UniProtKB/TrEMBL annotation:
Role of this protein: Catalyzes the reversible oxidation of malate to oxaloacetate.
CDD domains associated with the record: MDH_chloroplast-like
KW Zinc (keyword) present: no
Pfam families hit by this protein: Ldh_1_C (PF02866), Ldh_1_N (PF00056)
Enzyme Commission identifier(s): 1.1.1.37
Protein name per the record: Malate dehydrogenase
Claim: Oxidoreductase is one of the keywords in the record: yes
């Protein structure tokens, strides 16, 4: 067994938290030989509920849980944290866009950025799940100037997984047979799920699906999947979001497989002409606990237009929260 690591989760009594914590505790995120100390954050009115969640974690008798604590103070929750999953935020309801949450949620991420700057491990890995996830990660990052900017990521893995499922259904294949799919940009309705470089069971995806299906069905379905789930369930996605968070952190830490890549929203270094510093989703490979953007992909005019549209939205979101970016 390895030495225990500290995993902080905010919004621990919420719907995503209720799926996520049990998967982290069972070893799905960091592996079956990695004990975890869970450090939970909630707001004061939810402290009773979080105590109930902790009772249930205890009752699972997970072999990998080496410690469990909860607080309503970010400085306590983030103390020495090696991993921070920022889930605690308001979800959107029917008819809203994720960026409509910016005002309600932005303040949470500036305060929590400051707290992790003060007390988290210097090698912390941070994942923003709470919406609008990319810009919330940007806010946290700017409020944590002593931490490596590359520590701050946002979740587009749910979009990536949704795109895999749509393409697998259409081509009569299995998600495990699909490689090199990318989601570019923002976790929002402007995101660009891109199959240009994707391979399905060894064949170029472009030979198996036509452009009209991509434009009229695939892209809008993936872009609007969150809204479709809210309409159907009356609440936003939770178990699939938790599963994507597990995938994101696992691949970042333990590595992506072979030559394949995954989508992660990370601080842009200017690759593919994307404005530096924006938290933009790129194709990445992870090795030895570090992610690297896949370079050298050819970008055609159709893709460029969509990549720029989602970049533009992120610039507008960034400008709307300028006052929170010290
Ligand atoms: P929820 O309302 O069920 O749970 C959120 C929890 O966060 C609540 O228990 C609340 O008390 C807590 N919280 C609020 N403010 C907090 C703070 N300052 N510190 C700590 N905890 C706080 O919502 P949910 O369904 O779990 O969704 C959480 C967020 O994740 C929402 O913003 C939602 O839109 C987002 N989300 C993102 C993705 C993605 O792919 N990036 C997918 C699904 C949901
Ligand atoms: C999702 O994509 O399911 C989440 O971001 C929730 C939402 O508001 O759509």
């Amino acid at each position: 067994m390895k030495t225990p690591v500290r995993v902080a989760v905010t919004g621990a009594a919420g719907q995503i938290g209720y799926s996520l914590l049990f998967r982290i505790a069972s070893g799905d995120m960091l592996g079956p030989d990695q004990p975890v100390i869970l450090q939970l954050l909630e707001v004061p009115p939810a402290m009773d509920a979080v105590q109930g969640v902790m009772m249930e974690i205890d009752d699972c008798a997970f072999p990998l849980v080496a410690g469990l604590q909860a607080s309503d103070k970010p400085e306590e929750t983030f103390q020495d944290a090696d991993y921070i999953l920022l889930v605690g935020a308001k979800p959107r309801g029917p008819g809203m866009e994720r960026k409509d949450l910016l005002e309600a949620n932005a303040a949470i991420f500036s305060a929590q950025g400051q707290a992790m700057n003060a007390v988290a491990s210097r090698d912390v890995r941070v994942l923003a799940v709470g919406n609008p996830a990319n810009t919330n990660a940007l806010i946290a990052r700017h409020n944590a100037p002593d931490l490596d900017p590359r520590s701050f990521t946002a979740m587009t893995r749910l979009d990536h997984n949704r795109a895999l499922a749509q393409l697998a259904n259409r081509t009569g294949s299995h998600v495990t047979g699909i490689e090199r799919l990318t989601v570019w940009g923002n976790h929002s309705a402007t995101q660009y799920p891109d199959v240009t470089h994707a391979v399905v069971d060894g064949k170029a995806a472009g030979e198996l699906v036509d452009q009209s299906w991509l434009e009229e069905s695939f892209i809008p379905t993936v872009q609007q999947r969150g809204a479709a789930i809210i309409k159907a369930r009356g609440q936003s996605s939770a178990a699939s979001a938790a599963s994507a968070a597990i995938d994101h952190m696992r691949d970042w830490t333990l590595g992506t497989s072979g030559d394949d890549w995954v989508s992660m929203a990370i601080p842009s270094d200017g690759s593919y002409g994307i404005t530096e510093g924006l938290i933009y989703s790129f194709p990445v490979r992870c090795v030895d606990g570090r992610y690297e953007i896949v370079q050298g992909l050819e970008i055609d005019a159709f893709s460029r237009e969509r990549m720029s549209a989602t970049e533009q939205e992120l610039i507008e979101e960034r400008d709307a929260v300028k006052h929170l970016l010290p």
